[in-house]
Amino acid sequence: MKFKGLIIPAVIILIALFSAAYIVDETEQVVITQFGKAVGEPKTEPGLYFKIPIIQQANYFHKNLLEWDGDPSQIPTLDKTYIYVDTFARWKIVDPLRFFQTVGNVTGALARLDDILDAGVRNFISSYPLIETVRWTSRELDTFEIGLDKIQEERIIKGILEQADPKLKGFGIQLVDVKIKRLNYVEQVRKSVYGRMIAERKQIAEKFRSEGQGEARKIEGNQEKELKKITSAAYRKAEEIKGKADAEATLIYAQAYNKDPEFYSFLKTLDIYKQTMGKDSSLVLSTDSDFLKYFKSLKGE
Asked: Residue 136's pLDDT is what?
């Protein structure tokens, strides 16, 4: 009977010990509450801890990164052009005691994030015109380089973080990062924006076409100049060769004709006869003319 009488107290003690002990792992932090109010310091290091059974309660909070996913919404830019913006963020609990005292749990924290981050995104985007919000790069704006598919995330993220992070610190929350998942035009302005894009791309094409035509004219001019230079050099070379050939021919003729001057005179005279007289030619010459001297000599013979 004594043994049976000890079992019940032992079970009660074991239950009390189990309910008093709690474990904190590497990804958790704990705030102890008593009758709904926080007591003591938060437990942020992993290990085995104890609390008063039944009276005290262990409230676990994540230590790792948590996700906030904003609702897609239409936001007007400074020039009253509406765009769709869809954002998300990463945050973590850095002060579990303040977090518990201000928002209570993750659900309450997400509601606060909705209010602060949505307002931050809206305020920031509505402070800039459309072209300054939706761009390819962070360089000085160039009309020929406006894009639709990528935003200047660094500037927007920096602005949202600067606005939202100080407000969230009051809830024991640290805002780690904000990203834009999607940004697009609403349907009613998309066509007009695409029309402007087409016109701008045509301007770019015309600019490149004009530059290409100018470059082509430059290349053609250089080619023509080079061709004239080659032709001139070739003509000069040909004339030099021709002059040398004529001189060589003249020398050969001279050497040949000097051997028999009379024969040379005879051949030249025959050439003159051939060039000046045909079958219908008529000549009126004096009897003393030497033009037909060779005919005279033939007649005398």
From this structure: 41
